[in-house]
Fold:
Amino acid sequence: MPRAKQRTPELRDRVLQVAVATLASEGVTGFTTRRVAEGADTSTPAVYELFGDKAGLVREVFFEGFRMLAGRLARAEVTDDPKADLVRVADTFRRFVRENPVLAEVMFSRPIADFDPGPDELRAGGSVRELVVARVQRAIDAGVVAGDATDIAHALVALAQGLAAQETAGWLGTSKASMDRRWTLAVRAMLDGLTPGA
Structure:
């Protein structure tokens, strides 16, 4: 089958999806523009035309990661228990990182030397932040947590990110039960500490 020559939106989407998959299968050290081009059945120059350079491709993978995470958070069930919904936010973040560890590393740890996030990239998490802040605000409005919604959202995401990094690295425990217990302990302790009058 001949390689696609046209620089179409469909090709761009295919290259981006292959880039995410290549990152997952090959890791940061095995992630090359050539591998992505081969996987997308196109040429390396076509990838450069679409994304500028390797840094441009990584930049779009970075954005795609935040789009994927935002989609998951948006689909997370909203119940009549706003505090339980905040626990679900942490659980959703955990599952995302567990299923996409290398992508999460690109999003939160900047392991690729060719990619140095600027202000636009740092704003990429805006939709994630808005979703989490809205869930926190709902819990504040219900009177189950107290504080500033943005501050609490940042702290909750930072806690989940740290726990997920520990779990991915194998430092959070040696069994599923121990890791689950430590996740529950940390998230519950944080939310219980935010209970009005605590």
In short: The chain has a mean pLDDT of 90. The two ends are 65 Å apart (CA to CA). The chain has ten helices and no strands. Residues 7 and 49 are 8 Å apart (CA to CA).
